[in-house]
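From the shared-data thread, chain only:
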Amino acid sequence: MSPRRALIAALLTGACTSPSSAPPADVPHDLRDASEVSDVSLPDLTAEVRFPLLQERVFSAASCDVIEGCSVPGRRRLLRFDLTTPNLGPADLHLGAPTVDGRVQPGFQWGDCHGHYHFEGYAEYRLVDAMGRDVARGRKQAFCLEDTDRYNATQPLADRDRFSCSNQGIHAGWMDVYPRGLDCQYIDVTDVPPGTYRIRATVNGERRIAEARYDNNVGELTVEIPAVLPDAGAVDGGDAAVIDPTLPCATTEQGEHRDCGWDAEQGTRVCTPGAMVTVGCDPACGEPLGACASDPVLRVCAGDAICADLAALGSNDDACPVDGARNPCSRVTVTCPPSGRIRVLTGPYRAGSAYTCRVETR
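Structure, as tokens:
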């Protein structure tokens, strides 16, 4: 660990013994004023709200969202969105391992639904009206902080050097992205009347992480709540996508679950309703199916329209290992919808990169 990262980790856990940087006794792993540690470089976190999506979903009493207090049983209307939290630097944010010698470290909690440790109270979500008044609130969110992608860094990081859920943090110039498809990554707007509102997301609102500044920790995005959601053909009442997944990404988004940087086939493909259909550009897993180059991703939509991630019939990144090695080509098997028509979207794993995905179906 570099000295700079070690010092940031010490500040977070209360391990630094310098009188000028020791946090108050009643908050042993909290630094509320960056001036207390003005002799060191600090990270600088900010918040960006992107890719809103309205969804109606039915929750059972046993669902993770209900158990974790994010919603209640029954049919609910959810305003989902991605939250991106870049570290503008100049220092890395390093929280470290959530457990040491079997002991959970201060600030971390286990997430049963996600299956890993989170840093508590990292983000808070509100929906506000034109006067700035709260009309709905999301649960205070705990995050697994990791290097999802570069933000403004000029140099890449090797996979082994990236922060992850087992060694948490965000390097300077990198960002953590919490995609909207995750459990509890939304504000429940069931009782919110139609109108124009702003999603307001605050990161590190309690200043549990020492930063160079705190005046840029709030991100907002204007959204329109309609009276009725248009049907996008999805389960649980349908999703209403308010973004176009074929539009360019604002940054170097990556993965099959992003909702930007996709290419849509010009026409639809025909299948037998209720039958299983395999879609792919993968010559290596079983019977050859199309061809690929570089690292493509694949999404299958019901009907004629392009679809958002939450409304997709299926998606895939890497189809299967071949001789123990990673196979970057993609294929996915889905159930043909009642319309007997599917729309295929392809794209590069990292938005904006070159790729080839020559799709065939079987």
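The longest strand covers residues 74-86.
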